[in-house]
């Protein structure tokens, strides 16, 4: 099993695709500030803008809502995965670097990438010696084992995050997690023969294991310090920064961790002295702070609001401070197959034809925000196959065909349903409103209900009982790859095993035997070309099911303030800036 070559091949394939779609190939890393001097628009796509090795200063991040959780074992948000690398060291991680190099998986807490058995069912990692928690305790393989156990197997306390370990580890379907299972050996399929060695025994082949090991779920947690859901209030750092303050509604302050040793960490420079993270800032205010150089970055990484775009796009000196990467993400509409009448595939197909995707893109700011989509997998993710099962002229919808399918599903006059969206994401609300108008044209009345992003999955759209009770047949959704391959993109949104009582991301509640089996087949295929071909097959089957309505392939219009230094887009984390590299001249 040549996992290193596999990872490299995937990275190159994705990087080539991203490079082809970029607006500029400028590689100038000079300039006085984020956009000053010689820096140009899109310079951050392939270079480090305003490069600096100077220590000191304060980096300030703002977010319009907040995280699902900053607990490394209880998060699924891409920006948290990116940001958590500052205080939580996973076994491996994506390289903090510009351009295609940001897709490279490199050792972090481990000394190297995973060593796989010939059948890709047993993976071994060796930990670095001398790495310490902020309390001075040396990190061991048992701390990593415990972190995985709590992150995947204790939904009663930690409901967020992916469930790959639970799905693929031997006995994962029966293990009750460390809060209920008090046996000293814990989950037997994770072995720790000594303090530096951890071995994962899988029930079936998993060729993307190094990508999974890059999740913050493998960041070590001391069992003695774990307090379940409230651990986020007092986390113990394994990275260069530790928390000096945390408030769920206001934000957090991170300062240097004196126990961090640069000799044990080849990928982090840890330049800023302090990092301020502020929650629940109005999204327009976040933009204003960026343009006025008050804030270093919008940590959500989803780009400027549509209202702000004209301020920077019409002025050359301001546009020079922007980067417009593809996010490797899809904005889509989830149709829940257990909410009537969407249990009928013909009703789902009616919606596929009803949506005016081009007008939706125009409503949120045009091409800088994305392109109309026809597949689940975006073009920048390995495994993408171009096809369109529900074509329309100019991607503007086909009312005639939509009505034909409404008649076939026994709803010729249309019906009423609920459409959910995230209240603190103005572009998503705008897109939902535009969608509402398209649906009205074929007789479907969709009542929009809005909820905050940090509770969207845990309390509303990701809770099947709530969805069924509230007739939420339609849910606005955005998704980026867990890692830049078809499996990393698809599994947690279309696999039946990803359906959870709370915090779920398979909002359609899609549980199709053929799709589930293809996912298992694909991830067990060692040959990269054959594996990627399988992801295209899965995509087509999902679209035949019609429960996912692809709306647009997302792009981010990012802005670099003059004080922002070491600014570069990381392709591994949904086209946002790399927060491990970022620092400030302030």
UniProtKB/TrEMBL annotation:
Signal peptide annotation: 1-22
A Pfam family the protein falls into: SBP_bac_5
Membrane topology: Lipid-anchor
Gene3D superfamilies per the UniProt record, alphabetical: Dipeptide-binding Protein, Domain 3 (3.10.105.10), Periplasmic binding protein-like II (3.40.190.10)
Localisation per UniProt entry: Cell membrane
Signal among keywords: yes
Keywords from the named record: Signal
Domain spans labelled Solute-binding protein family: 104-498
Main subcellular location: membrane
Organism domain of life: Bacteria
InterPro entries: Peptide/Ni-bd, SBP_5, SBP_5_CS, SBP_5_dom
Family: Belongs to the bacterial solute-binding protein 5 family.
Protein name per its UniProtKB record: ABC transporter substrate-binding protein
């Amino acid at each position: 099993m040549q996992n290193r070559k596999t990872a490299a091949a995937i990275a190159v394939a994705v990087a080539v695709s991203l490079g082809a779609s970029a607006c500029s190939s400028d590689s100038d890393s000079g300039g006085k500030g984020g956009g000053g001097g010689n820096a140009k628009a899109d310079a951050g796509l392939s270079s480090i803008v305003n490069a600096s090795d100077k220590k000191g200063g304060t980096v300030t991040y703002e977010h319009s809502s907040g995280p699902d959780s900053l607990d490394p074992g209880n998060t699924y948000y891409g920006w948290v995965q990116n940001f958590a690398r500052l205080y939580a060291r996973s076994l491996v991680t994506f390289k903090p670097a510009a351009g295609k190099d940001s897709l490279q998986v490199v050792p972090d807490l481990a000394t190297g990438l995973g060593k796989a058995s010939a059948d890709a069912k047993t993976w071994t990692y060796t930990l670095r010696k001398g790495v310490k928690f902020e309390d001075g305790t040396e990190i061991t393989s048992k701390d990593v084992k415990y972190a995985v156990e709590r992150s995947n197997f204790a939904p009663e306390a930690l409901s967020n995050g992916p469930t790959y370990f639970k799905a693929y580890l031997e006995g994962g379907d029966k293990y009750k997690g460390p809060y209920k299972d008090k046996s000293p050996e814990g989950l037997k399929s994770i072995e720790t023969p000594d303090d530096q060695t951890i071995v994962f025994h899988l029930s079936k082949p998993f060729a993307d294991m190094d990508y999974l090991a890059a999740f913050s779920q493998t960041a070590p947690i001391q069992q003695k310090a774990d307090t379940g859901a409230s651990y986020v209030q007092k986390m113990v750092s394994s990275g260069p920064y530790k928390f000096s303050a945390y408030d769920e509604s206001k934000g957090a302050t991170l300062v240097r961790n004196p126990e961090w040793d640069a000799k044990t960490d080849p990928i982090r420079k840890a330049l800023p002295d302090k990092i301020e993270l502020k929650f629940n800032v109005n999204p327009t205010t976040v933009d204003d702070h960026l343009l006025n150089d008050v804030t270093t970055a919008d940590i959500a990484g989803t780009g400027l609001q549509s209202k702000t775009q004209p301020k920077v796009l019409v002025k050359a000196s301001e546009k020079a401070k922007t980067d417009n990467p593809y996010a490797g993400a899809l904005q889509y509409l989830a149709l829940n197959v257990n909410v009537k009448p969407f249990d009928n595939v013909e009703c789902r197909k009616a919606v596929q034809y009803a949506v005016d995707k081009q007008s939706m893109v125009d409503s949120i700011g045009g091409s800088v925000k994305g392109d109309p989509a026809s597949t689940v997998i975006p073009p920048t993710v390995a495994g993408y196959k171009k096809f369109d099962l529900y074509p329309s002229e100019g991607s503007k919808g086909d009312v005639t065909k939509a009505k034909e399918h409404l008649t076939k599903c026994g709803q010729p006059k249309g019906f009423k349903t609920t459409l959910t969206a995230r209240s603190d994401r103005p572009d998503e609300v705008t897109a939902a409103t535009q969608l509402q108008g398209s649906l009205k044209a074929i007789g479907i009345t969709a009542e929009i209900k809005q909820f905050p992003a940090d509770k969207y999955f845990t309390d509303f759209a990701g809770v099947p009982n709530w969805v069924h009770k509230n007739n939420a047949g339609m849910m606005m959704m955005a998704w980026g790859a867990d890692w830049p391959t078809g499996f990393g993109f698809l599994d947690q949104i279309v696999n039946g095993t990803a359906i959870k009582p709370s915090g779920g991301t398979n909002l359609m509640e899609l549980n199709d035997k053929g799709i589930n089996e293809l996912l298992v087949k694909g991830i067990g295929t060692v040959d990269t070309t054959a594996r990627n071909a399988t992801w295209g097959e899965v995509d087509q089957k999902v679209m035949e099911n019609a429960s996912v309505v692809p709306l647009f392939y997302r792009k981010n219009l990012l802005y670099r303030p003059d004080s922002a230094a070491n600014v570069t887009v990381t392709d591994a984390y949904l086209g946002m800036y790399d927060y491990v590299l970022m620092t400030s001249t302030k």
